[in-house]
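Render this sequence as a predicted structure.
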Amino acid sequence: MYRRSAPIAPFIIISGTVIISIFLVVFFMFLSPSQQAKNVVDAFYSYEQESRFSSSWDLFHPLMKEKFSRNNYMQDRNHVFMNHFGVDTFSYTLSRPKKKTNWRMSEDAEVIDTVYKVTVTKKYKGKYGNFQIIQDTYAAKEENDWKVMWNYNH
């Protein structure tokens, strides 16, 4: 007696849809430019949170590195935030990245075609009470790596 097998077409369609969906989720969560930009901003402030200022300085865009040397940055950050504010660390939250085009770090800086703006809210508990600092941080791709920048425009 002849027995009919189940049609294979629905299985292929469902499997293909699941594989494509997984790929898209992975792409947008980990590989999209906006997520990569947010990841570098997160890494930067994670280093800052741990007082690893040399590591955070490494994530600066070359234009930022022109503003201060590694040693000056390490000393200033530690002095201002830890000594003056009287805090050991801080917590922070990041906004969703927002794409900006033709952006400049300062009025005299070169134009960067695409950056992503991430608003960072740092919360401190120090000897002068609880307070927060809100700062827009920008990420730009430089030689295949994402780098951090701050806004110095008026």
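Summary. The chain has a mean pLDDT of 87. The beta strands are 90-94, 98-104, 111-126, 129-142, 145-150.
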